[in-house]
Design a protein that fits this description.
By secondary structure, this protein is of the alpha/beta class. The protein has one domain: Leucine Aminopeptidase, subunit E, domain 1 (3-Layer(aba) Sandwich), CATH 3.40.220. Strands 1-6-5-2-4-3 form a six-stranded mixed beta sheet, sandwiched between helices. The longest helix is centred in the middle third of the chain and has 17 residues. It is globular and about 40 Å long. It starts with a strand and ends with a helix.
């Protein structure tokens, strides 16, 4: 199978795909940012399920039901120990690879991924890390959508993706 990578401006909570991949932390808590948006649209039980699965090892990923979102599964890529915690590009790459493996093993064909951003890693490094990691998995899916509401993330993905 030959998959494609698409880059879109928008919210992952509106993505109609088999699985979404979001940044997570070892506690499973979803207190702000995309986690808060997901809880608001999909229900508090989405966070409760992730917390129930904690502690999540940094660099690992867990898969939970998509609830009322337009996806079957939410995959939480654990990029830090706590919300807004420290991370690095190696952790982001490892967590994303583990999340993509879970998506593949669950039978997903379409994936949406938002920026796995952290305050300790510059956006251009996050974009490079994500595109490099996704490139080794894209053949396992029909489409991987990189989607974010922040224009700097979109621009960084486009710059890295088009330079390949």
């Amino acid at each position: 199978m030959k998959g494609k990578i698409t880059i879109q401006h928008g919210s992952i909570v509106n993505a109609t795909v088999d699985s979404i991949i979001i940044p997570g932390n070892s506690t499973g808590a979803m207190p702000g940012g995309i986690g808060l948006a997901i809880k608001t649209v999909g229900g508090q039980e989405l966070e409760e399920e992730a917390i129930h699965r904690a502690p999540i090892i940094v660099g690992e990923a867990i898969i939970t039901p998509g609830g009322t979102l337009r996806c079957k599964h939410i995959i939480h890529a654990c990029i830090s120990e706590y919300p807004d915690g420290k991370s690095d590009e190696h952790i982001i790459a490892t967590a994303l690879a583990n999340a993509l493996t879970l998506a593949r093993d669950s039978g997903a064909q379409t994936i949406a991924i938002c920026g796995l951003k952290t305050e300790t890693v510059p956006i251009h490094i996050v974009a490079e890390t994500m595109v490099d990691t996704i490139s080794s998995f894209v053949s396992h899916f029909s489409e991987i959508i990189l989607i974010d509401t922040e224009e700097d993330m979109i621009s960084a993905w486009k710059s890295k993706h088009h330079s390949r």
